[in-house]
């Protein structure tokens, strides 16, 4: 069956939503320190206001409401360090107050020490020498509220601090800590069973026999899945014997696995192990109008969602980025969607008009240089790229200077754009 990219995206998202059983999983309650990258399972209301009390934004003098006119000597009252509960401030006095310290009753403003005369706090010894007669003169026309951080000005007690589905990054965890939360309820991790197929693939670290290659896909996809917030069980490599793979699939039982993901063995060859093992299973083998990543399989095994990605490593990771990653975001809230940008092509390209072509590129400063050719074995080029470059269906060629959509998949260099460093790879990688 032939389908568009959008149709297959919808099919994968629907498969995970309706068959993975993920939504029924009970939330986990984790200490904040272990919740980075997880997704909040329930709304969290602020149990306290932030700030919890009016406090000073500056080291300076707390000024009484009656003394805002300034320009006169005020008696220096007892100093207010952060963490203390101050005595009420009397008119005609100003209290040295430190950043974060509670504003005393009666005070309505803080004048920074730099604007006071003298512009330094009295030392304890100096105060003792003056025997309680120390004074300070503040500038005229002080506005009420100057450098006062109002209780609840960040968030009021009882307001929604974070909503269910929020991806917990440093800022969100910092907010929860500031609210006094020790633990947080998070959605369970999405669990993937990952297996790569093919008689020709060998475990990295083992000797390489003639005609064989090292397994790149398991590591590539495991890393991508872990980065996307899932938990991965890595299956041992499975060869090209359909009977063996059928046994592997038969041993998979519903439980904690939300998705079985394989690579290889799904196209038109004589030894397509995944296709043969699942020939009577109802799993659909389709041709998606995308390059790379055309051959795709999807369905269920023992009721568990199954996706078969093509064996070429770049096809596999493009399939992940285009189909699985967005579906995971829709279902679990993690990972965050990839940023999409418009960029100016540094070089021209050709594309099969009947397919959505996904090229690899290096984006910086609003421009994108292609890295490597369109072929799906070019892992070295992939490793030097930071984005996917989209050439929509119907487009057969683009000139340098054309505007294209790119999806960022890696960090953007901050130095000015220079194409020289990618040209070498571009030439070497195009075949
Ligand atoms: N006659 C046709 N041949 C092919 C077609 C087609 O439409 N008609 N499609 C091509 C496309 S496009 C792709 S993509 C591949 C997909 O093939 P499979 O999914 O069946 O994958 P394999 O044949 O098993 O492997 C393809 C390629 O990838 C290498 N490979 C496989 N597994 C790994 C791994 N774990 N790590 C690294 N590399 C791996 C494998 O050695 C092959 O070179 O089919 C085309 N053929
Ligand atoms: O569509 Mo294949 O996935 O190019 O190599």
TrEMBL record:
Its EC number is 2.10.1.1. One of its GO terms (biological process) is Mo-molybdopterin cofactor biosynthetic process. Pathway: Cofactor biosynthesis; molybdopterin biosynthesis. The keyword Transferase applies. GO terms for molecular function: metal ion binding; molybdopterin molybdotransferase activity. It catalyses: adenylyl-molybdopterin + molybdate = Mo-molybdopterin + AMP + H(+). Residues 193-330 form the MoaB/Mog domain. It holds the Pfam family MoCF_biosynth. Its cofactor is Mg(2+). It is an enzyme of class 2 (transferase). Keywords: Magnesium, Metal-binding, Molybdenum, Molybdenum cofactor biosynthesis, Transferase. One of its GO terms (cellular component) is cytosol. The keyword Metal-binding applies. Belongs to the MoeA family. Catalyzes the insertion of molybdate into adenylated molybdopterin with the concomitant release of AMP. PANTHER family: GEPHYRIN, MOLYBDOPTERIN BIOSYNTHESIS PROTEIN. This is Molybdopterin molybdenumtransferase. It comes from Arthrobacter cheniae.
């Amino acid at each position: 069956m032939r389908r568009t990219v959008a149709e297959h995206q919808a099919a994968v998202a629907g498969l995970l939503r309706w068959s993975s059983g993920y939504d029924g999983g009970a939330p986990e309650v984790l200490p904040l320190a272990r919740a980075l990258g997880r997704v909040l399972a329930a709304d969290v209301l602020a149990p306290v206001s932030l700030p919890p009390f009016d406090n000073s934004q500056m080291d300076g003098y707390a000024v009484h409401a009656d003394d805002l006119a300034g320009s006169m000597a005020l008696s220096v009252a007892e100093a207010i360090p952060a963490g203390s509960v101050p005595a009420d401030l009397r008119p005609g006095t100003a209290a040295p107050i430190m950043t974060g310290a509670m504003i005393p009753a009666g005070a309505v403003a803080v004048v920074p020490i730099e604007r006071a005369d003298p512009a330094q706090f009295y030392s304890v010894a100096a105060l003792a020498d003056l025997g309680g007669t120390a004074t300070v003169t503040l500038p005229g026309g002080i506005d009420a509220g100057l450098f006062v951080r109002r209780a609840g000005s960040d968030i009021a007690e009882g307001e929604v601090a974070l909503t269910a589905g929020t991806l917990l990054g440093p800022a969100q965890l910092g907010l929860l800590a500031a609210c006094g939360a020790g633990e947080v309820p998070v959605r369970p991790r999405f669990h993937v069973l990952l297996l790569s197929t093919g008689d020709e693939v060998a475990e990295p670290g083992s000797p390489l026999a003639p005609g064989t290659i090292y397994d790149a896909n398991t590591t590539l996809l495991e890393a991508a899945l872990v980065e996307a917030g899932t938990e991965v069980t890595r299956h041992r490599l499975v060869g090209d014997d359909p009977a063996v793979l059928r046994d592997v699939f038969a041993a998979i039982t519903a439980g904690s696995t939300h998705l079985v993901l394989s690579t290889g063995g799904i196209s038109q060859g004589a030894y397509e192990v995944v296709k043969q093992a699942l020939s009577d299973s109802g799993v659909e083998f389709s041709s998606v109008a995308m390059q790379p990543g055309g051959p795709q399989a999807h369905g269920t095994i023992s009721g568990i969602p199954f996706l078969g990605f093509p064996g070429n490593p770049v096809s596999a990771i493009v399939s992940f980025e285009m189909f699985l990653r967005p579906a995971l975001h829709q279902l679990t809230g993690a990972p965050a969607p990839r940023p999409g940008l418009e960029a100016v092509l540094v070089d021209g390209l050709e594309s099969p008009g009947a397919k959505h072509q996904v090229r690899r590129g290096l984006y910086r400063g609003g421009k994108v240089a292609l890295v490597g050719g369109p072929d799906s074995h070019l892992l070295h080029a992939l490793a030097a790229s930071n984005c996917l470059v989209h050439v929509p269906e119907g487009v057969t060629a683009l000139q340098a200077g054309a505007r294209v959509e790119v999806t960022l998949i890696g960090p953007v260099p901050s130095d000015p754009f220079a194409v020289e460093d990618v040209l070498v790879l571009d030439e070497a990688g195009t075949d």
